[in-house]
Q: What sequence folds into this?
């Protein structure tokens, strides 16, 4: 089983809780600067223990992918897939380069689990990318499979030419969208619950880092027998693959039974508590999720791990727009362990509650004192991008990109 280096700075996702309540060929594309910091096993088979599979399922969003119905993915033996990216005179030249860079990012991050060759005509390609404005397309990119029965013919991604103000697309905005649409083209049809994963519903957020959770989900996806694929696996290939039920059976809580009464589940270990918390969260029962996350925090042995639990539940409540509860969790996180991540929570809350000027002031102060705080840097860059303050964005990248940044190019 090959090892890989995950090319991203993992920002904890999934949101744990702890409060009492009643992220190929060389091209001139921009270098998005993935850093090698985490090592995991990418790829799972039946030689591996149930405990290993269970840990991977917990630290992924494979259950969200499986809950969407049929498993749709390419046959691993058929990589590299051929990719066509439209060279259109109607859009800036960097559009094509950025989409190509996004394909290369998936290839590098997966260290060859998925690979691509770029071709010049759509007739040659299994994956096709076009730039055109389509009526009623609300997102930057939209992906679809062409399927005949249970056989994938091709995958098509359509990127808009301009944003809602008829401006050219921001390079990071396009890159983030391309990462997500390519993920869908690979079969990641489930939505991550973490704001930091590529497959989180983007909205106004810019996720430009492929995280460990993204890669573990991809690896699990390509370790199960597909329902729909381009070339059916052979008998020998199937023997090394899991069924979806075999993967999910490693969890104590069924994740495909949406009608199950979770209150009847008896949980006594961290894994089951996490599974329950995620189920409650999917059902928008946030207070019950928080109670389960609290139990997880109490099982943790060190202050840093406990603070991550509080941090994550604060983000859960921010996503749910329950801001008072988010603030309470943020206070607990900071009191438990003040670190680079928890230090940015106050600014993150201001960002969610539309007080961007206050958030900017706090983030500037944090970075002036600690120019290595990647969480403050990433959030500050995101705010400047959304406000279209390119001069301030470039100044921030120039000042802190080499200390705190994982993306060091300017627009």
A:
């Amino acid at each position: 089983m090959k090892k890989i280096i995950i090319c991203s700075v993992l920002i904890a996702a999934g949101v744990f809780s702890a409060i009492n309540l009643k992220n190929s060929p060389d091209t001139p594309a921009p270098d998005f600067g993935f850093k090698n910091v985490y090592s995991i096993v990418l790829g799972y088979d039946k030689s591996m223990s149930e405990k290993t599979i269970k840990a991977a399922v917990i630290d992924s969003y494979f259950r969200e992918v499986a809950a969407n119905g049929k498993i749709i993915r390419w046959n691993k033996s058929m990589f590299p897939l051929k990719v066509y990216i439209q060279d259109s005179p109607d859009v800036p030249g960097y559009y094509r380069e950025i989409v190509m860079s996004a394909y290369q990012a998936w290839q590098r991050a997966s260290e060859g689990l998925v690979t691509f060759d770029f071709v010049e005509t759509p007739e040659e390609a299994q994956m096709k990318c076009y730039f055109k404005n389509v009526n009623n397309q609300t997102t930057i990119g939209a992906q679809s499979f062409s399927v005949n029965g249970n056989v994938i013919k091709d995958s098509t991604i359509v990127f808009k030419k301009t944003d809602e103000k008829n401006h050219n697309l921001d390079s990071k905005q396009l890159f983030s969208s391309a990462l997500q649409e390519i993920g869908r083209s690979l079969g990641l049809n489930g939505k991550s619950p973490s704001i930091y994963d590529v497959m989180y519903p983007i909205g106004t957020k810019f996720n430009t880092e492929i995280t460990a959770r993204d890669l573990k989900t991809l690896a699990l996806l390509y370790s199960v027998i597909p329902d729909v694929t381009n070339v059916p696996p052979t008998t020998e290939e199937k023997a090394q693959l899991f069924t979806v039920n075999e993967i999910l059976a490693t969890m104590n809580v069924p994740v495909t039974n949406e009608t199950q009464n979770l209150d009847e589940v008896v949980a006594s270990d961290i894994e089951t508590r996490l599974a329950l918390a995620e189920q409650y969260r999917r059902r928008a029962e946030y207070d019950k999720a928080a109670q389960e996350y609290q139990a997880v925090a109490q099982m943790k042995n060190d202050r840093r791990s406990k603070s991550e639990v509080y941090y994550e539940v604060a983000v859960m409540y921010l996503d749910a727009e329950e801001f008072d509860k988010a603030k309470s969790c943020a206070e607990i996180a900071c009191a438990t362990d003040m670190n680079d991540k928890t230090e940015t929570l106050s600014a993150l809350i201001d960002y969610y509650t539309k007080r961007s000027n206050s958030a900017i002031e706090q983030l500037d102060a944090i970075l002036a004192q600690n120019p290595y705080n990647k969480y403050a840097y990433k959030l500050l860059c995101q705010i400047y991008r959304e406000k279209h303050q390119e001069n301030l964005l470039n100044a921030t990248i120039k000042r802190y990109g080499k200390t705190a940044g994982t993306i060091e190019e300017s627009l």
User: Anything to note?
Assistant: The first helix runs from residue 50 to 58.
